[in-house]
Design a protein that fits this description.
The complex is a heterodimer. Chain A has a single domain (8-130), classed as Thiol Ester Dehydrase, Chain A (Roll). Chain A has two helices and five strands; from the N terminus they run βααββββ. Chain A has helices at residues 26-35, 46-60, and strands at residues 20-23, 70-78, 87-100, 103-114, 119-130. The radius of gyration of chain A is 15 Å and the shape is globular. Chain B is of the alpha+beta class. Chain B contains five helices and five strands, in the order E-H-H-H-H-H-E-E-E-E. The chains are: A alpha+beta, B alpha+beta. Chains A and B meet through helix 1, helix 2 and strand 2 of A and helix 1, helix 4, helix 5 and strand 2 of B.
Chain lengths: 131, 140
């Protein structure tokens, strides 16, 4: 897990969040599947992997109390099915930060690799936050 | 499953009921405990007027629809672009529908270009987007 937290103001294009490693345990997958009300297909649902990657960011950047962050858009590409029990390495960086009046649009790029360093997923998230 | 994929094919529907319990479980799984999702007293005093589901929770239903249609091809070659238009709330029933708009072929691989939409019980759009799934056409 990330051992460093930063302030939202420090986030600038090019910033890389500390890499985070997760074990996609049967327990984690079970909790995720109950949350999304799905039976699953024998592999880790790809959006469960995305959730881990996003968690790496949210745990690094605690928002001020009362802050509402809006997930505006999400692009994803899946390269490889991931078995339950696998370990993944999540990397997120800031691609753009756009100030629009009282709001900021933070565009984040994410990449997820398996233990053999094979890319299993990449994507781009746009999050709106108070400036 | 994949043999039936053709232009114009309808995908879904996937119908899910949103509850606070599921939102809390999603927070536990994802580690996203933002109070707008899990603190009903806090959320009631915001402009949103109550808790909302994580956007990625609702998007999971889109991925479920694509997995049902394309199987493992979706897990190892799928692409999606989604825009979150509105928030889903506890008590909402979400319905995801999609359609194969066209199929492109390159070498021995077919690509299904799809559009999807997630709406609540009031017919309000929660998510819209596009998805591409690759699958073998079986042509040699």
């Amino acid at each position: 897990m990330p051992d460093k937290t930063i302030n939202y103001e420090e986030l600038r294009p090019g910033y890389k969040f500390p890499p985070a490693t997760y074990e996609l345990s049967a327990s984690f997958v079970s909790t995720y599947l109950r949350a999304v009300d799905s039976a699953g297909v024998g592999f880790v649902p790809p959006l469960a992997i995305t959730a881990c990657a996003i968690a790496a960011m949210t745990k690094s950047v605690p928002l001020p109390p009362g802050t509402i962050a809006i997930h505006a858009s999400q692009d994803l590409e899946f390269f490889k099915a991931v078995p339950v029990g696998a370990t993944i390495d999540c990397r997120i960086g800031v691609a753009q930060k756009i100030e629009r009046g009282k709001m900021s649009m933070l565009i984040l790029e994410l990449e997820v690799f398996d233990k053999d360093k094979v890319k299993v997923q990449s994507g781009r998230a746009t999050v709106a936050l108070p400036a | 499953m994949l043999r039936e994929i053709q232009q114009g094919k309808a995908l879904g529907p996937v119908v899910k009921h949103i509850t606070q319990e599921k939102i809390d479980l999603y927070a536990e799984a994802s580690g996203d405990f933002n109070p707008i999702h899990v603190d009903e007293a806090f959320a009631a005093n915001t402009p949103l007027g109550g808790t909302i589901a994580h956007g990625m929770l609702s998007l999971a239903y889109v991925s479920e629809m694509m997995t049902s249609a394309f199987g493992q091809s979706w897990l190892s070659g799928g692409k999606l672009r989604a825009k979150f238009k509105a928030s889903a709330r506890p008590g909402d029933t979400l319905t995801v529908n999609g359609k194969v708009d066209c199929i492109e072929q390159k070498d021995d691989v077919s690509y299904a270009n799809c559009t999807f939409e997630c709406r609540n019980q009031k017919e309000e759009t929660i998510i819209t987007g596009e998805a591409i799934a690759e699958f073998s056409s079986g042509r040699k």
